[in-house]
Amino acid sequence: MDIVIAAAIVFYLLSSATYLAFLLSQKKNLDRVALCLFITGSLCHLTSVGYDFMRTGQIPVHNLYQTLSMSGLAVAAIFIIFHFKYKLKVLGVFAAPLAALIMLFAYQVPREPVQARAIFNSFWFVIHIISVFVGEAALAMACGVGILYILQENSIKSKKRGFFYDRLPSLDLLDNTGCGSIVVGFIMLTLGLVTGFVYAKSAWGRFWSWDPKEIWSVATWLIYAALFHQRLTVGWRGRRAAIMAIIGFAAIIFTFIGVNFLLSGHHGQFTK
Q: Which of 168, 219, 222, 264 could make an SS bond with 152 (beta carbons 3.0 to 4.6 A apart)?
């Protein structure tokens, strides 16, 4: 299936270039071409993941390559959904390169076959994995929207209309999209944590084992919990929410990749 993954990466890269051209030229047809390229890449990507699933009968997250591939597919799926829900076309400038970067990285890591284990068939494990990947993909979109918000706000505040002023949507649309992304991401991340604790009990006999990824996952959740709480109670909007969304996603990246390489624990056994 290497050729299918290679095709997915090529389509993601072509989509990234086309979205960049759309940002620069603002030609309407370009965003449609970029989206079509992205969807084509996503279908190739889905084919590869589906093949791995059919081959093992389990969600393919048995090594780092498969885990990265699943995260990239989640990013692609959430972006496509958000594209049609919020009509934020320019978000592809962030989503397409992110999907391409994840898959380029995945393509380079070893793909040693890992023996399927019965614990991967657990109902709680399946819900845990799906919830975490969907939640992190939604929070990735929140990060992208946060970056776009800061760029547009800086452009508006400058005395002269900057490069992004006419190329990015209104601050209200960006803020509402970011809010929706955070709500979806936080809910799914919470579900992922809860089902992860239940799964840990069934797999290792205890809900909590001070595993490095457990610690960092909770720390990341607390960042978004603070943002979610402040948004609901204090009315945090705009720049503060955007900055917190970016910080939160940086914590997700470290939790997802950094912990696996720098620290050891239960989760590292399945992702290295």
A: 168
